[in-house]
Design a protein that fits this description.
The complex is a heterodimer of chains A (139) and B (129). Chain A is mainly α and 139 residues long. Chain A has five helices and no strands. Helix content of chain B is 78%, strand content 0%. Chain B has 129 residues and is mostly helical.
Chain lengths: 139, 129
């Protein structure tokens, strides 16, 4: 494992470092909004705790199946939640793949394979974003 | 020994980094765990949605089983709680002198919450899965 050398200033490494921290806090905020909204919409009597947590982690229609919420309840399947899902997916997938990049680069060092590996991780990132967006927009 | 950067796995594990090193290792492992488990779940949901019953459904049934959930919830809970500590200490470095208290708080939150979760998962699983 090599020590990572980061040049000072506004570069990719610094931006991704900041993004990791802020995306983490943003995801916490989105989960909090999900839980509060669910409780306001009646989750206390219509949902058990695991379902509520599932909804908090990702507020999509499939995650209310195990509850007393009717499957066509508009408040749970409208555009607001679609936007929340898209935000969560973008933040989560990017946060995750940046993490993967950091771990892999720690063990790769300054090898010549680095641009190749970065490219591969970039492609996986785009792929997962597309798949997740597809699932969101089709449910 | 000097600065030797080619350190093997077992040699590295002998480093007495204590709780902080454990947190660092677990943060990486749980991060990778989330990528793999949740990623497979998203892919399986994609296949379930687009191709109906089959591989996607089977993978998701496996994913939602209580055995898997014990591992997945460990990954998510630990990564989130530890990550919150890291994010806060990175954004407000003035709190760094309180690293020890932060670690203590982290475990005090994680152990009961995760313990309760496994308790509930297993007590629901034992009567019949």
């Amino acid at each position: 494992m090599r020590a990572r050398v980061v040049k000072p200033g506004f570069n990719f490494e610094y931006m991704m470092w900041l993004f990791t921290r802020f995306s983490a806090l943003a995801m916490y905020l989105l989960a909090f909004i999900g839980v509060v909204a669910a409780l306001i919409m009646g989750a206390r009597s219509q949902m058990d705790l695991p379902t509520l947590l599932r909804w908090a982690f990702f507020p999509n229609p499939n995650h209310i199946r195990n509850s007393q919420i009717p499957s066509d309840a508009i408040a749970w399947i409208n555009g607001f939640w679609k936007v929340m899902e898209i935000l969560l997916v973008f933040l989560g997938v990017s946060h995750g793949f940046n993490g993967l990049r950091v771990v892999v680069e720690d063990y790769l060092g300054s090898s010549g394979l680095k641009p190749l590996v970065r490219g591969l991780i970039f492609l996986l990132w785009v792929f997962m974003l597309v798949v997740a967006l597809f699932v969101i927009l089709n449910s | 020994m000097g600065l030797n950067q080619k350190v093997g796995l077992f040699q590295g594990l002998k480093y007495q980094g204590g709780g902080s090193m454990l947190a660092w290792i677990l943060h990486r492992l749980t991060g990778l765990g989330i990528l793999i488990f949740v990623g497979v779940h998203v892919l399986a949901s994609f296949f379930m949605q687009q191709l109906g019953t089959g591989l996607g459904t089977s993978i998701n049934i496996l994913y939602e089983s209580w055995e898997f959930q014990i591992v997945v919830i460990f990954c998510v809970l630990f990564h989130a709680i530890n990550g919150f500590r890291i994010a806060v200490l990175d954004i407000w470095p003035r709190l760094l002198p309180f690293q020890r208290e932060a670690m203590w708080l982290e475990w005090v939150i994680f152990i009961p919450v995760y313990g309760l979760t496994i308790f509930i998962l297993i007590s629901h699983a034992l009567p019949g899965g």
